[in-house]
Write a structure and sequence with these properties.
Helix content is about 50%, strand content about 10%. The chain is built from six helices and two strands. The termini are far apart.
């Protein structure tokens, strides 16, 4: 038996007249395990999105020389000057975009702030208020 066949489950929801009225997602319990039934298209979309975001690191984090270069200069130089230094020293091919550099620096500051001020109240994300 193949892996695909062994994972197949037949769900009977009633007669053929109910199939057209099945509203997804559908919460179900299968052998004591809570599950959600979604369309194959929705599953494929979720799977694709999860694979894109797993382990994603910035261009700066993937290049240790550039990461060290940036980390050594963020406290004393402006981002434009740092970026110009990266281009001069490492070339345009290895240089991040200015917006990528900004995101990296802001993430580092946020992480450092969380360590130095662990009890500081954080603002709620936009749209969740």
């Amino acid at each position: 038996m193949s892996d695909e066949a062994s994972r197949e489950l037949t769900l009977e929801v009633g007669g053929p007249e109910l199939i057209g009225h099945l509203i997804l997602p559908l919460r179900v319990r299968v052998q004591g395990v809570d599950a959600v039934l979604i369309s194959a298209d929705a599953y494929d979309g979720l799977l694709s999105a999860s694979q894109r975001s797993v382990g994603v690191r910035s261009r700066i984090e993937r290049d240790p020389e550039i990461k060290n270069f940036v980390d050594e200069r963020t406290a004393t130089q402006e981002l434009g000057v740092i970026l110009a230094g990266i281009v001069h020293r490492f070339g345009e091919q290895r240089a991040p975009s200015l917006s990528g550099l900004h995101r990296y620096v802001m993430a580092r500051r946020k992480a450092a702030d969380a360590v130095t001020n662990p009890k500081r109240r954080r603002r709620a994300p936009r749209g969740s208020r």
